[in-house]
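TICKET: design request
STATUS: open
ATTACHED STRUCTURE:
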């Protein structure tokens, strides 16, 4: 199933999110998130980040475990107001409304198949 190839954490495709918070996010905290944090025996970590504002940050994950960002922010007691996935691998999700979809182009499908499991 191609959908599982794209979404499963073992495929290691980057997933980019925009997180809007009710609290300022410190660079120190984000650097700790890159190193990883163990929550209930599970290791969670982000790959990279970039600030949009002190209350808005772009986060990139590779594994994308269930509720990973929410669990990390909860661990640091950072109120998460909104979380939006904006990219999976080479596919930008801008313009796709929640609950809707679009078909991938031939080049996108080829990219996913060629980059599966690549680090």
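STATUS: resolved
RESOLUTION: sequence designed for all positions
ATTACHED SEQUENCE:
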């Amino acid at each position: 199933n191609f959908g599982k190839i794209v979404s499963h954490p073992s495929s290691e495709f980057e997933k980019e999110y925009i997180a809007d918070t009710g609290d300022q996010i410190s660079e120190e905290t984000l650097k700790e998130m890159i190193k990883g944090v163990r929550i209930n025996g599970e290791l969670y970590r982000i790959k990279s980040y970039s600030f949009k504002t002190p209350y808005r940050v772009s986060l990139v994950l590779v594994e994308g475990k269930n509720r990973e960002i929410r669990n990390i922010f909860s661990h640091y007691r950072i109120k998460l107001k909104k979380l939006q996935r904006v990219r999976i691998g080479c596919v930008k999700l801008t313009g796709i409304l929640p609950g809707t979809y679009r078909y991938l182009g031939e080049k996108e499908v080829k990219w996913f198949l060629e980059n599966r499991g690549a680090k």
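CLOSING REMARK: The longest strand covers residues 80-88. Helices lie at 2-7, 27-35, 68-75, 106-115.
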